[in-house]
Amino acid sequence: MHMFSSASGSVGRTRQLVAALAVVLVTSLGVTACGSDDATTSVPLNADDEAALIVASDELVAVCAEGDHARLADLSGPGIQGRTRDQDNVFNGAVESVVVVDRIVAVDGDTATVAVTLDVTIGGESSEEERIWAYERVDDAWVLSSVPDCLFS
């Protein structure tokens, strides 16, 4: 049985993830502040985007735990659907459970990142792993914009 849930995480891991996301956001804001005509404008995280990205990342956790190529392709944007459907080394298949320990959502226009800390159990052994997944908005839905790391150790 594969399970996933959300719980509060460790403060140290949270600070590391916040720092990594802050660098990304500051960098993108710096580009906007320079006055480039093609720079995107950062928008505040709204509750609808955050809720949709939490649902999308929960679905991805389940897909990673189950090793389901077809569902992974369904969660993927048009640029990566073929790669997620056909790539054999996306999953390791021996996952007993995956629990979301912590999650940080950051949105910048039509792109977003979700940083997750996961408690992964394989062969009776649990380990904490971190992932940062990239999303893009396509037709008002959040889909993966890069092939996610679903291989757990």
Model description:
- The chain has helices at residues 11-33, 47-66, 69-75, 81-86; strands spanning 95-108, 111-122, 125-138, 141-144.
- The model is unreliable at 1-43 (pLDDT under 50).
- It is an alpha+beta fold.
- It starts with 10 loop residues before the first helix and ends in a 9-residue tail after the last strand.
- It has a 4-stranded antiparallel β-sheet with strand order 1-2-3-4.
- The radius of gyration is 16 Å and the shape is globular.
- It has 4 helices and 4 strands; from the N terminus they run H-H-H-H-E-E-E-E.
- Helix 2 (47-66) runs antiparallel to helix 3 (69-75).
- The secondary-structure element order is HHHHEEEE
The tally of helices reads 4
> What are the low-pLDDT stretches, counting only 5+ consecutive residues below 50?
1-43
Distance between the termini: 18 Å
Give the overall silhouette: globular
Going by helix content, strand content and strand pairing, the class is: alpha+beta
- Percentage of residues in strands: 25-35%
The main pleated sheet reads as: 4 strands, antiparallel
Strand order in the largest sheet? 1-2-3-4
Query: Rg, please?
Result: 16 Å
Total beta strands = 4
Residue-averaged pLDDT: 74
In helices, the fraction of residues equals 25-40%
Helix and strand layout, with pairings?
Elements: H1 11-33, H2 47-66, H3 69-75, H4 81-86, E1 95-108, E2 111-122, E3 125-138, E4 141-144
Antiparallel strand pairs: 1-2, 2-3, 3-4
